[in-house]
Design goal:
Blueprint (H helix, E strand, L loop, with lengths): L35 H34 L37 E3 L8 E3 L1 E3 L4 E3 L2 H8 L2 H6 L11 H81 L12
Antiparallel strand pairs: 1-2, 3-4
Length: 253
């Protein structure tokens, strides 16, 4: 708390040293001292109250926009018993996995007790609110109302130098791991390409061998037919030389 001004009187009477006009005693010079920590605390408190007031105004504007979209009259003030934020906005620790049910229609119980009205959409159990799609759900969980219900504000803590350095080291390590993984995948890809080329070459050799064997079979069949024809011709010539005729029927009609 600020100290009071120190006042020094030189006594009464007209003959005193440093007397004021009319012989009255004057007030000497004083030096004011300030409690800097107290004023800094007050400034932080005013800033915090201003931020909360701004958040409430923005929350009221967002709520009225939603009410107008539903055909409801806007509110003049925020009728809410939301708790005061106890921490700044925190980074999400787990993925939302909104795409895991892509292409599916999920029926959600509004009352979350298995007996209430059901409807399709994304349900926020914290706010007991049903959102029609994933975009609306994402906007909701990043909004001021939802954050206030889980004790977070919309402001983020200023990162320290150590935190920035740690984050940069983490990003470098992640980038290095991705580079090594990409190099490994590239090597595996080249090996796979070589294996495919070898398989294709083996298939070509098999097809060539099959065609070669087919041609050899055709040649062998042709030689067999020619040899049989030659044997038949030789046999006919021999029978003709011996005076044998054909074995046709001799029956007269």
């Amino acid at each position: 708390m600020a100290n009071r001004d120190k006042v020094t009187s030189n006594g009464g009477g007209g003959g005193g040293h440093g007397g004021g006009a009319g012989g009255q005693g004057g007030v000497g010079p004083s030096r004011r001292t300030w409690d800097t920590e107290e004023y800094a605390s007050k400034a932080r408190s005013r800033e915090s109250r201003g931020n909360r007031q701004q958040e409430r105004e923005e929350e009221l504007a967002a709520l009225n926009a939603e009410r107008r979209s539903q055909g409801l009259p806007p509110l003049k003030r925020l009728r809410s018993n939301l708790p005061e934020p106890t921490m700044a906005m925190q980074e999400r620790s787990a993925p939302l996995e909104l795409e895991k049910n892509q292409g599916k229609t999920l029926m959600v119980d509004y009352s979350n007790d298995g007996k209430g009205q059901q409807g399709p959409g994304f349900y926020c159990a914290t706010c007991r609110k049903l959102l029609k799609d994933n975009l609306a759900y994402l906007d909701h969980i990043n909004g001021r109302v939802h954050l206030a219900r889980i004790g977070q504000s919309t402001h983020q803590d200023r990162a320290t130098l150590e935190q920035v350095r740690a984050k940069l080291d983490e990003l470098r390590a992640k980038a290095s791991a991705q580079t090594n993984q990409s190099a490994s995948l590239s090597y595996d890809f080249e090996a796979r390409i070589k294996a495919i080329a070898q398989e294709q070459e083996l298939e070509r050799q098999k097809r060539k061998q099959a065609k070669r064997e087919q041609r050899n079979r055709k040649k062998q069949q042709s030689r067999t037919i020619e040899h049989k024809q030659e044997q038949d011709e030789e046999q006919q010539d021999l029978m003709a030389a011996m005076g044998f005729g054909g074995f046709g029927s001799t029956k007269t009609r």
